[in-house]
Design brief:
Layout lengths: L2 H4 L6 H10 L16 H13 L3 E6 L4 E7 L2 E7 L2 H13 L1
Antiparallel strand pairs: 1-2, 2-3
Length: about 100
């Protein structure tokens, strides 16, 4: 999935499953957490990104929400209707 396509991925269970696979390295089938729609699960995703060396350097929680991740000179930006969706999109880009 290229970055432009990731920017169009909707919130939902398919996205949550892709987060499990791409970010957490979980093989299918697992029952994923509600990363794209649930705030507490999204915090777990945020913690995993930090563990992987990413820093959240910019957050705009207005609608649409925007997030920027940085790591070793690399920057990734994503947006979404919610903070959770924007973080999931950024996480998928970071996993690529």
């Amino acid at each position: 999935m290229i970055h432009a396509a990731i920017d169009k991925v909707p919130a939902g269970r398919d996205l949550d499953m892709e987060i499990e696979r791409a970010v957490f390295g979980q093989p299918s089938p697992v029952v994923p957490a509600y990363y794209s729609t649930g705030f507490s699960a999204c915090l777990g995703l945020q913690s995993e990104l930090i563990r992987l060396g990413w820093t959240i350097t910019e957050v705009e929680r207005a609608r649409p929400a925007r997030i920027r991740l940085d790591r070793k000179g690399e920057s990734i930006e994503a947006s979404g209707q919610t903070f959770e969706l924007a973080l999931c999109r950024a996480a998928l880009k970071a996993a690529r």
